[in-house]
Amino acid sequence: MVWLTCWTLRLLVIRSEGTYWRWTNYPKAVALQQNFGAPRTVSSVKLFTQTPTKAPNTYFQYSQNGLDWSDIPGLSNLDAGASYGSKTYPVNNLTAQYFRIVVDNMTYLSDIGYFSDLQFCTLATTGVPTPPQANPASHRLPVTLATSQAGNAGAVLDGLPWTNWVVDGRPSSVELLLNLGEVRNVTGLRYFATYSAVARHTSIEYSTDLNNWTIFPGANDLNTGGYGPNPAYGSNLINFPAPTAARYIRLRITNPEGEWALGGYGEIDVLGFSSQASNHP
Ligand SMILES: [Ca+2]
Fold it and tell me: How far is the CA of 81 from the centre of ligand 1 (A)?
């Protein structure tokens, strides 16, 4: 006989009254993790959502070592704040030592998460650890460095949508280089465009060695700026047709109209996955 038991994660109190798990001031991503100490078999996850919760990109994940994480099948990229109250998510008896919830702030909100109860319900037996997923879903990849010949390139990584990378003085072209630190499978780009500049002729390119560059299919001569004709102000998503092996991503903007300022990206995130598993924060 086995007994269903539920373990409640301790919820942090973040600038709020009561026991809520809530983060403010534009976090990139937040995670709440549980180490069971030994492999445990999870049969469901219960989450109590307060209102108004904003958690449009929520993932429930598992790991055997606390480092390499996979999404629990079916519990990937959920809008966990869509409805108030308790909700139970089924899990098909997945066995792991570590479980966690991740809220990824892919839409650059000031305030994410507002949960008051989170339970991983386990069968009181140990089992065979479940291997990592073979084909993980796309997530936001860590970007180790952003560089450019001018402007504050680091502003696209600081989490704050209003601090941006701008190059003024009527440049003929500019480039912003993102380094992933290792070769990953890249599937798209998410970015926040501000009013500060134009980017009417943008190509998005990739490389594994900094020498050989290729434009992503469909990513040539795009209007990606938040100002000017047909502005793309705010949060934008560009999906590439297929996963592409890349370590470096380059946004190259040319300026045939002689505009004063180019760029204006408040944040840029690269989407994709590594060979084994994904890591959010
Ligand atoms: Ca920023």
Answer: 25
Segment 197-249, tens digit of pLDDT = 999 999 999 999 999 999 999 999 999 999 988 889 999 999 999 999 999 99
Higher pLDDT among residues 117 and 192, named by residue:
192
The Å distance, Cα 154 to ligand 1 centre, comes to 8
Band the pLDDT of 275: cuts 50, 70, 90.
Answer: low
Q: How far is the CA of 264 from the centre of ligand 1 (A)?
A: 10
Which CATH superfamily does the domain covering 139-273 fall into?
Galactose-binding domain-like (2.60.120.260)
How confident is the model at residue 12, as a pLDDT? Answer: 46
Give residue 221 CA to ligand 1 midpoint distance, Å. Answer: 24
* Residue spans in the chain of domains classed CATH 2.60.120.260: 4-123, 139-273
CA–CA distance, 167 with 9 (Å, rounded to integer): 46
Give the closest residue to 143 by CA, choosing from 68, 71, 248.
248
Stretch 243-264: mean pLDDT: 97
Cα of 159 from ligand 1 centre, angstroms: 5
Q: Please tell me the distance between residue 102's alpha carbon and the centre of ligand 1 in angstroms.
A: 21
How many angstroms is it from 108 CA to the middle of ligand 1? 10
Question: pLDDT tens digit string along 128-159?
Answer: 888 887 667 788 898 999 999 999 999 999 99
CATH superfamily of 4-123: Galactose-binding domain-like (2.60.120.260)
Distance 156 CA to ligand 1 centre (A): 4
